[in-house]
Design brief:
about 375 residues; mainly alpha; two-stranded antiparallel ribbon; 2 strands
């Protein structure tokens, strides 16, 4: 027997080009077929997961990858929702509405970050906390635009008759398309030149400066990108809900987004998707258990995940793999090994070090 040749692991298998393209095609087929066969409730649940996954993705870029504190991501989601509602009410072209819902929160995020990026620690946290706190009274005050405390509705995502689809199916395709584009852009963003520079800034700003990387510029850019994703999630929110109010901007929603990012996995693209699922599923589950204990149960879940899986749920497979290796045959008592010629080659057991039917109503 020879032990010198490293064994190809599962990660090596998934690195093959044809496997990756096969998985992409499979995912595309699933996204196309799923809304046609799933019941309305399942479609609506998946739509909401897509909405909040995009918001968590933006939060992950600025916090998970950039290391900045941002407690106001929900403000950009709400702003994108209000811009969408205003554009629809004024009969803008829907493509223009989407662009405005992304760009306007991005511009606001840029202006905020130009001041906030020079701050650090608690100071930048206070600035971002102020966003939803100020946003709620502003939304109530400018009632001509926002509908005041009553909110504003915008029905624009009903399925066209020529499609033959139900509303939830049509909305699923819209959310899935924009969410996939957002995740592809986000992945390329953090894995490219920008992501590498941002990682250095997060690790050590002095080192980044010595390498010619401006921490200020990359902090501003990360915050602005997060705001753009927040605005996109606001547009998707209106696709799904078709109604927004000052409650959309509430600060506790921003904290829930933060918890979703941490539980899903900070600094992880897949973790953002898990975070979106957590944001949708866990409140439903805790309310079903006891509405009076919802906050307590969610707090306990957050603490357990932080202590057991500091890397979030996305790190669970890696943790299980390590536990299985430790409890494998090589970790237990074994029979005395036969004496062999001393060798400088790898020992057995130490060579594997891998990485790791409801009636449809027409409303979401």
């Amino acid at each position: 027997m020879t032990y010198g040749m490293p064994r190809a692991g599962a990660s090596g298998f998934f690195q093959k080009s044809w496997v990756r393209w096969g998985l992409i095609v499979l995912l595309g087929v699933v996204l196309i077929v799923a809304p046609l066969v799933l019941p309305q409730f399942a479609n609506q649940t998946l739509i909401r997961i897509g909405v909040y996954a995009v918001a968590v993705l933006g939060l992950n870029i600025v916090m998970g990858y950039g290391g900045q504190v941002n407690l106001g991501q929900i403000f950009f989601l709400g702003l994108g929702a209000y811009v969408t509602a205003y554009g629809v009410a004024n009969e803008w072209n829907i493509v223009l509405v989407l662009a405005a819902a992304i760009v306007i929160p991005g511009v606001v995020g840029l202006l905020v970050s130009l001041a906030a990026a020079r701050l650090g620690g608690l100071a930048i946290a206070m600035v971002t906390i102020a966003l939803p706190i100020v946003g709620v009274p502003l939304a109530k005050r400018f009632s001509d635009v926002t509908g005041g405390s009553q909110g504003i509705s915008a029905r624009f995502s009903d399925a066209p008759e020529w499609t033959g689809l139900y509303n939830d199916q049509w909305q699923f395709y819209i959310v899935a398309l924009i969410a996939v584009v957002a995740f592809v852009l986000g992945r390329n963003f953090v894995r490219g030149k920008f992501g590498r520079a941002l990682a250095i800034v997060k690790e050590n700003e002095s080192v980044a400066s010595s390498m010619g990387i401006s921490p200020y510029r990359y902090k501003v850019l990360a915050f602005t990108v997060a705001s753009l994703f927040g605005g996109a999630s606001g547009f998707l929110y209106m696709v799904a809900v078709q109604y927004t109010s000052p409650e959309t901007l509430s600060f506790h929603h921003s904290i829930s987004l933060l918890a979703a990012m941490v539980i899903g996995g900070a600094g992880s693209i897949v973790g953002s998707l898990i975070g979106g699922a957590y944001y949708v599923f866990v409140p439903q589950a805790t309310n079903a258990i006891d509405p009076n204990l919802t906050a307590i149960i969610q707090g306990v879940i957050l603490l357990v995940v932080l202590f057991v899986l500091p890397g979030g749920l996305v790190s669970l497979p890696r943790r299980i793999k390590r536990m299985m290796r430790r409890s494998g045959p090589s970790a237990g008592p074994t029979a005395p090994a036969p004496q062999t010629t001393p060798s400088s080659g790898p020992e057995l057991g130490a060579a594997e070090e891998g990485p790791q039917q409801t009636e449809r109503q027409g409303q979401a």
